[in-house]
Amino acid sequence: MSLPKVLIINQPFNKNTGGGITLSNLFCNWERKKLAVACLGYLLTENMDPTPCNNYYQLGSEERKWIFPLDLFSRKYYSGPINIDERTNVKNKVVVERSIFRVKLILEYIVPIFDYIGISHFQAKTSLSSSFCRWLDDIDPDVYYMQAETRESIHFCNEIIKYKKRPIIFHMMDDWPSLIGVRGPMKKYWERKIDREFRHLLNKADLLMGISEYMCEEYKNRYGRDFVTFHNPINLNFWKKAQRNNYQLTNSPTLLYAGRIGLGIDKSLKNIAEAVKRLNKELHTDIKFIIQAENAPNWINNFKNVKHQDFVAYEDLPTVFAQADILILPYDFSPESKSYIKYSMPTKAPEYMASGTPIIIFAPQDTALIQYAEKYNWAAVVTENSVAVLTEKLKNLFLDRSQRKQIAQAAKNIAETRHDSNLVAREFEQMILTTAGKKAVI
To answer: Tell me, which fold does domain 6-233+421-435 have in CATH?
Structure first.
């Protein structure tokens, strides 16, 4: 099969973010020399994955300009091509000129004011530099694969399209349009303006993708365009190397959450901790709630049975997930959090499914995650923001071996039939081939 050259805009390949992992799995069969990425410098970290792609353009100080006074404190990033295999050299291409006092002043006082009055929507602009245009001309892509989640990134996508017209694929990962421009006296102005600008970009796209079936249905109604669902696929052989098949509880039972902490998650994690505390008291057990995250939540010391552990290498996740007795997928129930996650699907969901460990979801009813779980019965679900209800559901799951086994087997079946990267990546390839105007050569 002859695959087209793809320029990926605003999302790097990495192993520590949902977007980076999803990208790596969707493009898993692509020829490395036919992929290139353009993104802002702060997205290029030590967790970059050079395997699928090593041809990057770092959008730095030549492309991104800040308004005063933010320009006095912004990081001075190198602009230009970067080979990810040579990451040791990249550290020398970032120059930081700022004081701790000035940074604190900006973050604690100026940024909140800018957010409130709407200046944050034009505080920085990313434009095409002569260096970037030369790089773009050299790689001469056949198709653009774009993501965006700010007004600035919308404008940058439009500038690229204007400079060099190519077929466009746009992929939505979260429902950020529902939250953008929601503060202050200029709220309605920015909502309307950014909505118009975003619709203008979508109308230029030849193919639109969403992250869940629920998102694609909503966006069809909202934007009047068809969206195709592409979520994170997984390498089943990778996950089967440590897949759980025994549903007896271990001597020291564990409930595991692995992922980020922050908007959309922290309050529910605390409620889970409280539920485990009550469960241990009622059953006279010693169940541990393990939070595998970059940092521990600030309330963790209030619960003796909640433990924090650092992220592990991606290669070790199958073993870590299979060793847990139950995996939990939580969302927050606040209106702001619900607006952000309503149509999203966690990258880790298929990974949880393939692990062979039974899953419980603690999330609002009207979310893509709950709809998907209830449709295919691959998890126990709690849709009430109630510690008592969650405690009872956990109790039943920990006490009922047959229920744990039934849920886990259903999840493994869904992973194999709907998330196998051999199947999903092949369909993804065909979509891009069609969009690029090329035919597969078998």
So the answer is: Rossmann fold (3.40.50)
